[in-house]
Write a structure and sequence with these properties.
Layout lengths: L2 H15 L5 H17 L4 H4 L1 H4 L2 E8 L3 H13 L3 E7 L3 E9 H25 L3 H28 L5 H18 L13 H13 L8
Antiparallel strand pairs: 1-3, 2-3
Helix pairs in contact: 1-2, 2-6, 5-6, 5-7, 6-7, 7-9
Length: about 210
């Protein structure tokens, strides 16, 4: 077996591990697989051509606040997929991720971890719902800034596989057009400035790829 085949097998094994019921183990496996793809300038189509072209949609949450839609958008962009807050005739409103299986799964894991962690923290800090959502909006703004900075660095990197990225985005765009999605507006009116700034500080300090306590 060549060194190239060994690398591909290692990535493939990590992708299998990303389906683990242990969320931390799954997230770590996805991150390690992504790092190897970047290091060796590989695309998903070279590891598993059938899987790489399989565009899916996954609904992750019913209804949503503005901070949740913002967090979903930035996480999806980082993981090379897209996010929509939509209204369906029979099921109502919800956030949907669209992209390849692995990218959607990575986005879902990151979103659920961050949402759970900061929802819990907001409840400890603030008793009023409007204050909690102001804090969480600040968190989302800072996390978005961190992710967009990482995306900018990735796009400058010579190891970034731009061709594979364009193929994935084209397939996702075609899928989205066929879905005929109708985007809805998210909720957020009053903003408590103090809670918002507190959230920005905590969001900036948050580890994005490590276990959140």
């Amino acid at each position: 077996m060549s060194d190239f085949d060994k690398i591909k097998n290692k990535i493939s094994n990590l992708l299998d591990l990303s389906e683990s019921s242990n969320e931390h183990e799954a997230a770590l496996a996805i991150e390690m697989a992504n790092n190897l793809l970047k290091k060796y300038n590989l695309s998903m189509s070279e590891i598993n051509p059938e899987e790489a072209s399989n565009i899916i949609e996954k609904e992750v949450i019913k209804c949503a606040w503005k901070w949740e839609t913002m967090l979903c958008k930035s996480l999806a962009k980082y993981n090379l997929c897209d996010s929509f807050f939509i209204t369906r005739k029979h099921t109502g409103r919800g956030i949907v991720f669209v992209g390849t299986v692995e990218n959607v799964e990575a986005t879902t894991i990151m979103f659920k971890k961050l949402r759970k962690h900061f929802n819990h923290k907001a409840r400890i800090l603030y008793s009023i719902s409007a204050d909690r959502n102001s804090y969480l909006l600040g968190v989302a703004v800072s996390v978005r800034s961190k992710l967009y900075a990482l995306i900018k660095d990735r796009n400058r990197s010579e190891s970034s596989d731009e061709t594979a990225l364009v193929v994935i985005q084209d397939k996702a765009s075609e899928y989205i057009n066929n879905m005929n999605l109708k985007e809805a507006g998210s909720k957020q009116s009053f903003v408590n400035g103090h809670a918002y700034e507190h959230g920005k500080i905590d969001g900036h300090a948050a580890p994005l790829f490590e276990e959140l306590k």
